[in-house]
Amino acid sequence: MLKYTLRRLLGMIPMLLLISIVVFSLAMFMPGDPLGGEIDPTNSDPEYIEEMREKLGYNDPIHVQYWTWVTNFVQGDFGKSTQYKVQVSELVKSRMLNTLFLGISSIVITYIFAFAMGMTAGRKAYSKLDHFIGGLNYFGLAVPNYIAGVVIIYFFSFKLGWIPFGGSHEIGLQPGTLEYWISRFHHVLAPAIVLGALSTASYTQFLRNDIIESSRKDFVRTARAKGTSESKIYNSHILRNSVIPLITFLGFDIVTIVNGAVITEAIFTYPGIGTLFLNSVNNRDYSVLMTLTMFFSLLVLIGNLVADLLYGIVDPRIRID
Amino acid sequence: MSEHTKENKGPLLEVKNLETAFPIDGEYYNAVDDVSFTVDRGKIVGVVGESGCGKSVMSLSIMHLLPKGIGKIKGGQILLDGKDITNYNDKEMNKIRGKDISMIFQEPMTALNPVFTIGFQLEEVLFNHFKISKKEARQKSISLLRSVGISRSEDVVEEYPHQLSGGMRQRVMIAMAIACQPQLLIADEPTTALDVTVQAQILDLLKEVQSINDMAIVLITHDLGVVAEMCDDVIVMYAGEIVEKTSVEELFENPKHPYTEKLIDSIPKMGVKQDRLGSIPGIVPSLKNMPRVGCKFADRCPRAMPECTTITPLLGEVKDGHEVSCILYDESRPKERANA
């Protein structure tokens, strides 16, 4: 397994190089450049601007610019945000904690709901309860999260005042205290539910369908013939088989933890990576934009690797030596 | 081994007028129609018939393993060791399934759960019925695997089904089935999916475990060769009904029902040069198109008479312990007609 992992990690290098070329090209094709953020806005002398362009390297040939970026990037120098005037790494670090917190909360919520609903619906297939859960899920799938977000804010924050409008915690609380963490949970709850609704729905239906299919397999009949109780058949024999295809989703989830929240974070004005990403697009903050895109790509690759390794753990037939 | 064995001196399994039905377009049709037979302790009873004759449905009915919400027992009685288990619910059945009756299936490739080790699946049946420790269960399962002829059983308990061959898996299934020393084993075409050489080994194994544990076996097969080799008594089924019931010697020496005759005809004979094996034209009629009156075999029967489509034959005893359902024999004609 270690050898396999190492081989996969090595295989990522050429992949990342290709991705970096794409990311760099896309940034080049975007209209405008971040020059505006780098120079003294009060000085509009064309000579000064030209001088700054030369100094900042905007006049270098493209391959030189690419090379400069890549070499700096691999050395951990992601550049400076033209918008916030701080190192990109600093910026990402400060937002990452919030996003991770949101992403993990959302996934925990997703898993709890999806497994509870999916297992019930699969076991009581075609019953009223199953149809109800199905209806709920299709509703969850059908409502876009920006609408769900706005509706939730309107009712629960504006009308009822149960949840805060935005932010990640109350201002003025000492980090690390109990109040601070309660406040964080309070702030993350609504965006986490909205963020998780979509994947909860797909997880649930997927799990339900797979449970129905597995329950018709021969090994279920064998288990019954052994005198195994119905709940044990469902919770162990069938579930263990039905979890295998769900692993594919888990690979995507790892990416979702970090970047799936772009829209949701924006609606709830939650200060995470998603909001940062959106802002950097709007303000042509190239160094942030490119760093984040590279980071997301890396996560996709890692997510896939983790999923592949997990397959081997849950399914002995594809166990990797 | 079971508490209630001492009391009951009657047959181990008694099936009386069993009817199992499946719904087609909202109406129930009998896949097993008025089937009665008994299985004595320590005996092997063969159930033969071609595909679709209801032999698997019958065995699943006894185990209460019919597909949920689809097939159902409509009438009749199933008595195991004198106890009526016909209306047992899942919980009651779970107490006897695997312990008093167990079953092995046709497809060893899919009958085991692919994600659990052999040991886990074997020990499960022990945990279901006995209070034993993990260690004891592991030891027991290793010795069970050895008793079904798996030599490296210490390794096999840690392995997964996909690492074993079809024959090995069927051995594992047998080990599972005999783990709690049941009185009755139902084997539903246990060798059909296996290579010919492996078939013989599995049959030998079944015979061996049968004699060691003194259990009764209901052996479902479409292979008369298997019946000849293994069974004490034979039941021939056609279209959900029993058409002939007798001892194995009598069946081969003196088959009565035209269907049985044709079945025996279709086995190649040693030392006889045959151009073509005998075959029976047509197939078993589907449930929906089953004739309601008359003999169900009539339109495929080489000896059919006009009466066959109007008189429904009954199972009648033509000779000591030899019952047949065909109006060629007076014993099979319904009484009022026979008297008339």
From TrEMBL, chain A:
Sequence ranges assigned to domain ABC transmembrane type-1 in this UniProt record: 96-307
Membrane topology: Multi-pass membrane protein
Entry's Gene Ontology BP terms: transmembrane transport
Regions crossing the membrane: 9-30, 100-120, 132-156, 188-207, 243-268, 288-314
Cellular compartments annotated: Cell membrane
Family: Belongs to the binding-protein-dependent transport system permease family.
Protein name, UniProt field: ABC transporter permease
TrEMBL record, chain B:
SMART domains: AAA
GO cellular component: plasma membrane
GO molecular function terms attached to this record: ATP binding; ATP hydrolysis activity
Pfam families registered for this protein in UniProt: ABC_tran, oligo_HPY
Domain ABC transporter: 13-264
Any single biological process term in GO: peptide transport
Main location per the UniProt record: membrane
Topology with respect to the bilayer: Peripheral membrane protein
PANTHER family assigned: DIPEPTIDE TRANSPORT ATP-BINDING PROTEIN DPPD (PTHR43297:SF2), OLIGOPEPTIDE TRANSPORT ATP-BINDING PROTEIN APPD (PTHR43297)
Protein's recorded name: ABC transporter ATP-binding protein
Organism placement in taxonomy: Bacteria, Bacillati, Bacillota, Bacilli, Bacillales
